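U., I forgot to send this yesterday:
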Amino acid sequence: MAFSWYTSAMFSIVLWGITDLFYKKGTDPWDRYSHLKIVFTVGLVMGTQALYQLVQMGWDYNPINIVKYLPVSSMYILSMTLGYVGLRYLEVSINSPVSNTSGAIAGILAFIVLGKTMNSLQLLAVSMITFGLIAMGLNEKNLAKEERNKDKFAKHKLGALALIFPILYAVVDALGTFLDDVYLSKLMSPEEALVSYELTFLFCGVMAIIYVMVIKKQEFNIFREKDKMLAALFETAGQFFYVYALDTNSVVVAPMIASYSIVSVILGRIFLKEYLSKRQYIIIGIVMIGVIILGFFE
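Result:
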């Protein structure tokens, strides 16, 4: 792989930040099957990428890896599906920062359980990123509460219950990242992990669309779903770089990549006209400084 861990992580941050924007644009708050339609679209694109990767590998791949990697794949796919549901009820500037405290959780697990280490400056940078993500999540929780109190006619007035989706995402995704670190360290290469995950996602996507169209008899025309397709493309591209970045020191990489929520917040402000307070700008600045500090260790 020609890219360093830092360059790969930065690609993932930017690509996944853009992904969240298109996820939100492609989510219909009135469509109860919207999240399953996204699962299918992402699965289709990931399956295509997996086939391309297999060609690049000369088809040197053992299908048993799909089963071996299933604990990781299932965590990732479940967390992403929970995230898609959350986007029906929450703005991307709320959903994404809360969800991506998962990077901090995964970093802590890597430090405590796997014994991963970092130097003093890396510790400072990771602490700044972790603090920023947690502060952003808490800040957005308070803003969401204020907005719900003002808007008596909200489309989905779930109150604090809506936050259960990004919170569950954070916990499940952190477990997936932790397990992924174990697998990449001891059990398989980044290429094998990537193909295994993408083929599993393809299978889940096929099952999801069968449920939507055959069992629930809902209409779905993928050619009319530009935003969902763009989200799937950026998601898959980000995943490609993610496995190479994580195949290093996850105690540093996991919190860093989780900062893609900052990109999501900024894009949500620019394109979706979501509000950003002065406090949010300060938090964004702290996280960006942390990411820049990590860049010195490329």
